[in-house]
Amino acid sequence: MKKLSLLLFMLMGITFYGQSSDEKLNKLVHELGNRMEEMIPKGDLDGIMSMYSEGARYLPDNFDQILVGKEAIRMYWEKTLNYLDVVGFEMTPVTIEKNNNMIYETGNGVSKFKYQGSDMELTFKYMNVWRKENGKYVLIMDMYNDRPIRTEK
């Protein structure tokens, strides 16, 4: 009888206190992605950089080196945003895992941009590693791999 009472109490707690930890984690990761999806097309460099930790690592596709630290990552994003007119950016998480204060996310994305008068679309796979620092999650590792670029007609 005690086990049944405990089980009912736990079920009621889940019902009354809202989302499960998986739902909360999914919601958090989607919110982080939504922030990036809003900032990148706006060219909000300061906003984008607020998503990274001071010692973050960034591994862009087709790049010779691993970018280490906010300053190196900022220079990369600044050149990218000045070079391309990004008109849309979407990230779709495929896997999300949490361990203590770390979140591991993999997914697929699409970046739409204008380049030399043409509408272009770049699809990519990505992996983000987030760590909770000073009460908020920031990227400590960001990497992506391009798929072939498509020209929209």
Automatic annotation (TrEMBL):
<protein>
    <submittedName>
        <fullName>Nuclear transport factor 2 family protein</fullName>
    </submittedName>
</protein>
<feature type="signal peptide">
    <location>
        <begin position="1"/>
        <end position="20"/>
    </location>
</feature>
<dbReference type="InterPro" id="IPR027843">
    <property type="entry name" value="DUF4440"/>
</dbReference>
<keyword id="KW-0732">Signal</keyword>
<dbReference type="InterPro" id="IPR032710">
    <property type="entry name" value="NTF2-like_dom_sf"/>
</dbReference>
<feature type="domain" description="DUF4440">
    <location>
        <begin position="30"/>
        <end position="138"/>
    </location>
</feature>
<dbReference type="Pfam" id="PF14534">
    <property type="entry name" value="DUF4440"/>
</dbReference>
